[in-house]
Design a protein that fits this description.
1719 residues; alpha+beta; five-stranded antiparallel β-sheet
Length: 1719
């Protein structure tokens, strides 16, 4: 991370304080400052801007102002790194980089290239090697960086890659493609056979440029075909093979082309050829004056010279590509024949023939046919059978059956001639593509491929300054570019959003505009009835290609009808806003406007002659046959060899041959596009082939990883980005100002056409792509892959879990890894199966991984080098030992070299070895010969199998394609049959309708004829009547006149009414039109306001996102600074610890120094003592010498004393020498100690000085870092405090508002509850009063009840009582059953818990058993390994034992031989002893005997040792076998226990399931019983309510019957009531029943009793256990308990009271009304 200086930070702060903005105007944009002072307030929707270049102050729209970036963002390499991402900032950066000759710029994941003017020096081979092996993050933006990125991704992921070049014509796509392929061929290299090299690529490019390029008004060397160049790579990353596929060739350009444009380059090269022999052979020495094809030689000499050089270069290129001279000659013959055909011309009227036969004769000679055959093939169109070869153009298809009988389209002679020329050139181009693929193919195995897609760019004649309309070929190229743009949109937007949705990543991209594909739909949209080839025109929308196909089948169809149908489907409709439609009308006839690139590139097309393009030209189809039947073998052999191969697909795609497996796979994919679904039927259509070719292109590259390169035009003359008829280009209020576009930029930067660049930027939608790249997570990896790749950055996790540990939860493991990596939270996000990263985060992790890996590799290298050094040292030791052994052996050899037996041994031994070695060499040679023969046989079989495999694969692919064709043809035929059946049924239905209409019209016509006949008869009768009878005629005449007057009057009246109504309707229409206009204006105004608000919202959203991303970047930077601060603190603490350790070391050294000084002092004292001893010794020596002299003077001493004295002298001298040596050693030791002391003092001083310097420097660094960090921390703390205060303020306000809202809601809810309760009570009270009032009204309306009604009442009362009693019994029974069910449920729950505990226990036991089983399995595996090792060791030991046994047998044999020799020698010894031989020979023989005996004893001991070893090995084998059996038995037991536990677990689960079913059944029964209980309770309550109402009615009846008691009839009523009371008393004695209901009923029955006792007296009272009390109906009514109908049964009572009143009251009883009123 680059650290900014304080000056840069201050400059950025000053820049942000001034609020610099870009003012967008019609010429570009200008830099200014936005003014925000209060006194300079601008109108609403406006902002005030001060321009920097002249200081002018302007009020402009908010939409015309965009934020500017700081100067630190100038010339950024990646546009996505801009702080404020908007159009003006992007254009400003591009202008700066273009002015500095920086043509390439990253735009997020894509690359943006501005077409250079000239040949820059950034494409050299030296620059190529600068990008070799680099990552994308380490490379500057360049086309080589895209190639390196794709190549690196291919090697790492083994996935196919594709590089797609997008842009307009002349923007440098082909040049970029050339640099891409050249980089790959140079860096990747090729395998040993040099299949694809730089020389071959340059030759291929020269060949395609000559035959496929031509000058246009927009580009001096424009590519006129689309191509896919595929490079196949092997395991080593080298190019194994290559191939090229071409499509959409403009073959008609040979004969016809727009005005001002030229034909293909190869014709000019051929006409400028300098080879006289070739010119003579091609008849080009004398050129024609005029040519109907417009092929004329170049006029300028320098152009001719350049063309001749290009022709020589073309010949060299064809030679490099392996094209033989005969094949080249065939190409030149065909090209010259095309030229001569143009010179021959054709007649314009009359018979179809050549205009100049001499030139036609030359063409026929060059093609190898006669003039009659050539004329017949061009003009007569006689089909001679056989399959015509398909061409590569998109205007050509297989022949139709209609051409065989001569019923084809009527073509002029010139059109036939043009068709022949285009067919010949198409076949020639296809031949060249197949020859190129022949030179590039290889049989090597390829792993993956890289495809480069190059198509002609957007064609707009208006952009080139031409006033003509675009042609059909230009429409096809623009359509292909639109499809590639849509693919870019799908990969950049749609798939990313779908991936985020699948992984539950929530991201808001509201400012992204939806994709506009109207231009693509207007060209290729198919209808649902597209399989039906009929002349019927339906109203279903279809594209231009489908309309062309339909109109071509309609006789007399015109371009006007075609345009009308197209505009009816895709033209602007009523109510559409301006700019919504992608198709507009033009002011010119036969012209229309189509908006490409999302409506930013409007192209005007001229449809004149398009219908003739879609029709078959028989001359074009006869061209392949003419070439195959040529008399020239060099031509016929070439085209006959290609007649059966699938080099061209449906007359569309060339170059599908290939030797590699990947090439076959690509060819199969393209064939599948032409043989599936709709394509199987429509592939014969000339127009639909265009769509199929582009579909094949898209399907081929869609399966690979895509890399997009956007090529922009920096300058174009006469460009206009909007349609002239719809000048909808937005120019704000500031566009009226004539502001300069350059503002403050340098003069070198004023080379860009800003409006043109802005239109291209909008059309490519790069801004939206960069916003999505910045806001989203462009980098993502699967959890397992991320963990495996980056766990090296967290070694503590690896140590914790181990390298090969099994991860149960990958997501959790990735979370731990991310936590250990200490990444910023906003820089990564976890999905369901992937981890997503912001842009740049994964690159930083990769960099950290590379650093860690390099450190690990360094440590590994150090360990390896240490190991190798130790091994080398061990080897040296072994060599030293071997040298010593060799020296010893040499010494031994010197001792035995003269021994006769040794000489014999050394003479015989080599002979044996030579013989053995010769036999071994002979055997080895035989084995080598056998292996070589086997190898040759295997190689031969392998080659045969490979050839068979390739042949079978090609056969399978062909059969598969044929089978698919047949299947799809059958399906299409069935669909056609169904469609025809539907058409026939529809036609029959229409026929029936027309027949009915015809019958109705016929009847009507008959009626009309009858009326006419009657009118004629009447007229005749009138005429006859005038002659015969005047009275009768006068009567009829009067009737007729009266009728006529009535008819006239009726007509006038109806006319007047019609005029009045018409006037009223017209007035209404005018009013409605005015209202509609006003509403339309209001709608337009609201739409404009909505659009402005939407744009403003998008702009503010973009600025907010930019600010948010900037804030996230600052947070990431702060996070990195905190990490650095923590690291610095740790380093500082380590430095302090090191300083402390150094201090302790210094103290230790001081102590050692003191100890050494003390030791030196003691040694000095010892030295002085030794000196004193030496002085004493010297004195003794002097005294002894004196004594010696005295003794020597005594001559009388004898020799013995002299010798003794000499001996003493020598002893003394030896002692003196020893003492001198000791003194020298002590002096040396003292000197060494003094030197060590001096050295230690110097080392201490030096270390003290260096340490002090280091401490001072570290203190200074620490102080500086602390000060800078404190400054930054203070700034950050201030910012954080401000943000925290703002946040706290907002939170306080939020809490206050929430508290206020809560209190208000509580108050409102309390008030609502109180008012609701009060209203409910009032409502219930009102309902009760209304019910009583209704009862009273019913009583007033009715009379007293009759006996019949009273009897009915009694029966109903009894039934109610019995029903109530039954309901009470059922309720009690239900309660008992519910209690039982509750008990059962509790038991089930307890059993369930017990089973769950048992299940958990079993699960734990199962887990423990499984863990033990796994441990036992591991132990078993280890034992098996040990067992295998022991078995191997035992086998080795057995082999060794066998060898030793053999050696033992040989030793026994030798022993026997030696014993025999020993016996013989003993006999010889005895004989020699007897014969008195030499004793020395006997001793030698005895030594040999002893030696042999010792050897024999050694052999015996060795045999014993081996036998003991074999015994031990057998014991070990037996032990291992026993352990293995035990482990196997234990494993079997564990498996049986595991199976038993699994059975128990399964049984337990079944029991649990059974219990769960029982519980569900019990809960269901409980629910049913509860429902039954609720229904019974409801019935009980209803019955109680009915009973209450009945008693209430009884009270009413009591009041009504009081006045009727005197009559005898009422006695029966009273008797019946008494019976009812007696029955109730009997039932009362039963214990069942509800106490509350019984008490209530008892009170009401007591009331009845009291009433009866009052009326009948004590004589008729019922005798029971209680006396009856007298009570009136009023007292009885008061004694009733309060009715609960106000709370619960109010609706029921209010509904039931009138019913009972109607049942109980009689119509005849009128005296009860006052009583009811009183009651």
């Amino acid at each position: 991370m680059r650290v900014k200086t304080e000056e840069q930070i201050a400059a950025e702060e000053a820049w942000y304080e001034t609020e610099k903005v870009w003012l967008v105007h019609k010429e570009g944009f200008s830099l200014g400052s936005q003014l925000k002072s209060e006194e300079l307030s601008a109108p609403e929707g406006k902002v005030r801007v001060k321009l920097d270049h002249d200081g002018a102050i302007l009020d402009v729209d908010e939409d015309d102002v965009e934020k500017a970036n700081a100067p630190s963002c100038d010339r950024l390499e990646d546009l996505a790194s801009l702080v404020y991402l908007n159009e003006s900032s992007v254009l400003h950066t591009l202008r700066q980089r273009y002015g500095a000759s920086l043509l390439h710029t990253y735009a997020g994941p894509s690359l943006l290239v501005l077409s250079p003017r000239g040949a820059p020096a950034v494409y050299s081979e030296k620059v190529m090697h600068m990008f070799k092996g680099c990552r994308r993050e380490d490379m500057a933006p360049h086309i080589y960086a895209v190639a390196q990125t794709a190549y690196r991704a291919m090697l790492m992921s083994r996935q196919d890659q594709s590089v797609i070049l997008l842009g307009g014509s002349g923007s440098g796509k082909t040049t970029s493609c050339q640099h891409l392929v050249q980089y790959l061929a140079t860096i990747a290299g090729t395998s040993g056979n040099k299949v694809f090299s730089v020389e071959k690529w340059q030759a291929l490019y020269s060949l395609l440029e000559a035959f496929g390029n031509s000058p246009t008004i927009m580009n001096g060397n424009a590519t006129r075909f689309s191509q896919i160049l595929s490079l196949d790579f092997d395991q080593a990353g080298q190019v194994a093979s290559a191939s090229i596929q071409t499509m959409l060739l403009e073959k008609l350009r040979v004969a016809r082309r727009p005005a001002g444009e030229a034909t293909f380059n190869v014709f000019y090269y051929l006409l400028a050829c300098g080879d006289g022999t070739l010119r003579t052979e091609l008849h080009l020495n004398h050129l024609a004056e005029n040519n109907v094809f417009g092929i004329v030689p170049l006029a300028k000499p320098e152009e001719k010279q350049k063309a001749a050089q290009q022709f020589s270069k073309l010949q060299t290129a064809m030679k490099v590509l392996g094209i033989s001279p005969d094949e080249q000659k065939a190409c030149w013959l065909i090209l010259a024949a095309i030229y001569h055909l143009g010179a021959a011309g054709a007649t314009k009227a009359g018979r179809k023939q050549f205009a100049r036969h001499e030139w036609a004769q030359k063409a026929a000679y060059l093609l190898g046919c006669s003039l009659e055959e050539l004329s017949s093939a061009i003009f007569k169109h006689q089909h001679k059978g056989g399959t015509l070869q398909r061409s590569t153009s998109f205007r050509q298809g297989p022949e139709e059956s209609s051409l065989g009988d001569g019923t084809g389209p009527k073509l002029s002679a010139l059109e036939c001639l043009e068709g022949m020329a285009s067919g010949l050139y198409s076949e020639l181009f296809t031949l060249l593509v197949s020859l190129v693929n022949r030179a590039l193919k290889s049989s090597q195995h390829s792993l993956c491929s890289m495809m480069i897609v190059d198509t002609p760019g957007f064609q707009n004649p208006e952009q080139g300054g031409s006033a003509r309309g675009a042609s059909f070929e230009e429409l096809c190229h623009n359509y292909a570019q639109d499809r590639l743009q849509r693919l870019f949109h799908e990969r950049t937007f749609v798939q990313e959003l779908e991936r985020y949705k699948e992984e539950n990543i929530e991201l808001a991209f509201d400012d992204l505009e939806p994709a506009v594909g109207d231009s693509v739909a207007a060209v290729d949209q198919a209808s649902h009835q597209s399989l039906v080839r009929s002349l019927a025109r339906t109203d279903q929308a279809r594209g231009l290609l489908w309309l062309l196909e339909e109109e071509a089948l309609v006789p007399g169809a015109t371009e006007d009808a075609l345009l009308e149908r197209l505009f009816s489907y895709y033209g602007p409709q009523e109510g559409d806003k301006e700019g919504q439609s992608a198709l507009l009308r033009s002011s010119k006839p036969h012209h229309f406007l189509l908006g490409h690139s999302h409506g930013t590139n409007w192209v005007e097309y001229d449809v004149a002659g398009w219908l003739s393009y879609t029709k078959q030209n028989p001359a074009t189809q006869n061209a392949p046959r003419l070439l195959q039947d040529s008399q020239k073998k060099i031509i016929s052999n070439l085209f006959l060899g290609r007649a059966g191969s699938a080099t061209v697909l449906s007359g569309s795609i060339a170059g599908l041959e290939g030797g590699s497996q990947l090439a076959l796979r690509r060819a199969t994919s393209m064939r599948k596009t032409f043989t599936t679904g709709m394509a199987a039927v429509k592939k014969k259509s000339l127009c639909i082939q265009i769509k199929l070719q582009v579909d094949a292109l898209i399907d081929t590259i869609r399966k690979s990883k895509l890399h997009f390169v956007h090529c922009f035009l920096p300058v174009a003359e006469g460009w206009a980005g909007e349609p002239r008829s719809a000048s909808s280009r937005r120019v704000s209020s500031s566009s009226e100002l004539d502001l300069p576009s350059g503002d403050h930029c340098e003069a070198g930067l004023l080379q860009l056409d800003v409006p043109l660049l802005r239109a291209q930027l909008r059309g490519s939608r790069l801004l939206d792509a960069m916003r999505m790249f910045r806001q989203g997570y462009p980098d993502h990896m699967v959890f397992s892959e991320f963990r495996r790749r980056f766990d090296v950055l967290a070694p503590h996790l690896t140590k914790k879990h181990g390298r090969n540990y099994i991860v149960v939860d990958e997501r959790r493991a990735v979370e731990e890894l991310l936590e250990s990596l200490d990444l910023e939270k906003s820089s990564c996000c976890l999905g369901l199966s992937r981890v997503f990263f912001r842009a740049g985060t994964l690159a930083r992790l990769e960099e950290q991984r590379d650093e860690q890996t390099s450190r690990n590799l360094t440590l590994f290298q150090a360990a390896c080098r240490g190991y190798l050094a130790r091994q080398h040292f061990k080897k040296k030791k072994i060599q030293d030992l071997a040298i010593r052994c060799v020296q010893k052996n040499i010494k031994k050899n010197k001792g035995v070299k003269d021994w006769a037996w040794w000489k014999l041994f050394t003479t015989v031994r080599p002979l044996i070895e030579v013989q053995l070695s010769e036999e071994q060499i002979r055997n080895k040679d035989e084995e080598i010969q056998q292996l070589r023969s086997k190898l040759e046989k295997v190689e031969k079989e392998r080659n045969e199998l490979r050839l068979n495999n390739d042949r079978l694969e090609t056969r399978i692919s062909e059969l598969t394609s044929e089978l698919t064709d047949e299947r799809n043809t059958g399906e299409s035929a069935s669909q056609l049959l169904d469609a025809e059946t539907a058409e026939r049924l529809r036609a029959e239905k229409e026929m029936e309708e027309l027949q009915t209409q015809y019958d109705a019209l016929k009847k009507q016509m008959e009626v009309m004829e009858m009326e006419v006949m009657e009118a004629r008869l009447i007229r005749a009768a009138e005429i006859n009547g005038e002659v015969d009878d005047d009275d009768t005629g006068g009567e009829w005449r009067l009737k007729y006149e009266r009728a006529m007057r009535e008819v006239d009057f009726t007509k006038k009246r109806l006319q007047q009414e019609f005029e009045d109504k018409l006037e009223v309707e017209q007035q209404n229409k005018r009013q409605l039109e005015r209202r509609l206009g006003d509403l339309q204006a209001d709608s337009d105004e609201s739409q404009r306001a909505l659009q402005q608000l939407k744009k403003k919202s998008q702009r503010l959203t973009a600025e907010l996102q930019d600010t948010k991303l900037h804030l996230e970047g600052q947070q990431v930077r702060n996070h990195e600074l905190e990490k650095k601060q923590r690291r610095f603190d740790s380093e500082l603490s380590q430095a302090h610890e090191e300083a402390q350790r150094e201090k302790l070391q210094r103290e230790k050294l001081q102590r050692e120094k003191d100890a050494l000084l003390a030791e030196a002092f003691s040694l000095k004292q010892q030295l002085e003592e030794k000196d004193m001893d030496i002085a004493g010794f010297t004195q003794k020596v002097v005294s002894l010498e004196a004594e010696l002299q005295d003794i020597s003077s005594q001559e009388s001493k004898d020799e013995a004393s002299l010798a003794k004295v000499k001996k003493q002298l020598r002893d003394l001298e030896a002692k003196v020498k020893d003492q001198e040596e000791e003194l020298d050693e002590q002096a040396g030791t003292i000197q060494m100690l003094e030197q060590a002391k001096l050295r230690l003092e110097m080392e201490m001083e030096r270390m003290r000085q260096t340490h002090s310097k280091e401490v001072e420097s570290r203190d200074e660094e620490v102080e500086e870092a602390r000060q800078s960090c404190q400054k930054k921390l203070k700034q950050m703390e201030v910012q954080l405090e401000e943000e925290y205060e703002d946040k706290q303020k907002v939170l306080r306000e939020k809490r206050e508002l929430e508290s206020k809202l809560a209190t208000l809601s509580d108050q409102v809810s309390q008030r609502d509850l109180e008012s609701e309760k009060r209203l409910r009570k009032d409502l219930k009270r009102t309902k009760a009063l209304l019910a009583d009032a209704q009862i009273m009204l019913d009583h007033l309306k009715t009379n007293a009840p009759s006996k019949r009604e009273i009897a009915q009442l009694k029966n109903q009362l009894e039934e109610s009582e019995f029903t109530c009693a039954a309901a009470v019994k059922a309720r009690k029974a239900m309660e008992v059953e519910i209690e039982d069910l509750h008990l059962q449920i509790d038991d089930i729950a307890k059993a369930k818990t017990a089973l769950e505990e048992q299940l958990s226990r079993l699960q734990r036991e199962k887990n423990e058993v499984q863990s033990r089983l796994e441990e036992d399995q591991e132990d078993m595996n280890e034992l098996m390994k040990k067992h295998k090792a022991a078995v191997a060791q035992a086998s080795r030991d057995l082999a060794q034992m066998n060898d030793l046994q053999a050696q033992l047998e040989e030793a026994n044999k030798q022993k026997q031989e030696l014993q025999e020799k020993l016996q013989a020698l003993q006999s010889q010894v005895e004989f020699l002893e007897q014969s008195m031989v030499d004793k020395s020979l006997v001793s030698r023989q005895e030594a040999k005997i002893r030696e042999l005996e010792t050897r024999l004893e050694f052999e015996r001991t060795q045999v014993k040792r081996l036998e003991s070893l074999a015994g031990r090995l057998k014991e070990n084998m037996e032990k291992l076998t026993e352990e293995r059996d035990q482990r196997t038995a234990a494993e079997n037991r564990e498996k049986e226990q595991n199976k038993r536990l699994q059975r128990q677990l399964r049984d337990t689960k079944e029991e649990m399931g059974e219990l769960a079913r029982k519980e569900a059944e019990a809960s269901r029964k409980k629910h049913e019983l509860e429902l039954d209980l609720e229904s019974l309770e409801a019935a009980n309550q209803s019955l109680q309510a009915d009973l209450k109402l009945a008693f209430k009615r009884i009270g009413d009846l009591q009041a009504a019957i009081e006045d009727e008691m005197e009559s005898d009839e009422n006695e029966d009523l009273i008797t019946s009531l008494q019976d009812m009371v007696t029955k109730y008393q009997k039932r009362k004695n039963k214990p069942e029943g509800d106490s509350d209901v019984d008490s209530e009923l008892e009170d009401r029955v007591d009331g009845v009793k009291s009433w009866l006792s009052k009326n009948k007296g004590p004589s008729k009272a019922a005798s029971d256990d209680g006396s009856l009390k007298s009570s009136s109906p009023t007292s009885y009514w008061k004694s009733l308990p309060p009715d609960r109908s106000d709370d619960e049964h109010d609706p029921l009572d209010s509904a039931s009271r009138p019913r009972y009143s109607r049942n109980y009251l009689s119509d005849s009883d009128t005296e009860a009304k006052p009583t009811e009123t009183n009651a």
